[in-house]
Amino acid sequence: MKRLRLTVQLLFTIVTNGYLYGFLDGKIYRGSLKYACVPGLNCYSCPGALASCPIGALQALLNQRGFQVPFAALGFFFLFGSLLGRFVCGWLCPFGLIQDLLHKIPIFKKKKRLPGHRILKYGTYASLVLLVCVGSMFLFGGFAKVPAFCKYLCPSGTLLGALPLLSADEALRGQAGGLFLWKLGILIGIVLLSVKVYRPFCQYLCPLGAIYGWFNRFSLVQIHWEQERCVSCMACEKACPVALSLQEISRSRECIRCGKCVDACPQKCLYFFRKPS
Amino acid sequence: MNFWKNRNIWILGVLTGAAFLGIGASQGQLEVVWRKAVMICLECIGIG
User: HSE-up of B48 (CA within 13 Å, CB side)?
Assistant: First the structure.
């Protein structure tokens, strides 16, 4: 399962960022695939990105004059969320993959959570409400509204968008100033923290994870627990990278469906999908 | 019966998503998303 997940993560990241010419030329893909969104946090200003970022799409719609219900973005959230829930985070998000790889670096004693997790975990909702929604509707830069999450926080934009574009385009490089340094600082902080703590951005800041978390209780992809066969050895709890209890696995908003509990269970009483009755 | 325990609720979510996408497309929202996504987003890269 571990190897399968890494393969899926790598393949999905490569395929959805497959416009290789963009990396060489410092230009971004402008084709019709960008009418659609990818499920994970994947900056649409990444030179290789073939589709749009769902959080970027939501903000673009909220940035319009007046107020319109952002049906298109909500449609993507309902589709991906109802089918996959936070399986997207565990298997399909490029920024999740990067944090997973950083956490494998064998330095520091690894931690599953930050101290104060019970409060800090609400950071994802704060980021969603304050930056993505309220910020995008009410923060102005000149006469235009700004996508506040992308502008002030998103490390995926810095890593997948800014760094490749600035390294390929001298004119853009000349314009980088304080805001870029602020975002670079956030990225460096998250990169360093990811080596010690498991997926700090996903656990404490990601608005997309907050949205998909709401779908976790009823999405098609679930991790099922066959209680009758369970011997309560708690191997699943020990294996869970976000420290969930047996009862919380799969249904919790924090479960990213990584499948480590499924691998760890000696009785094989945890499994993806439902067995046919 | 608990609504959330119904194993087919996800179908309702998918249908809602498809309906929302249809409404959004009819209001030109996919066009708005595309126009934003095909220009380099200066805010995203920390310049704008």
Answer: 23
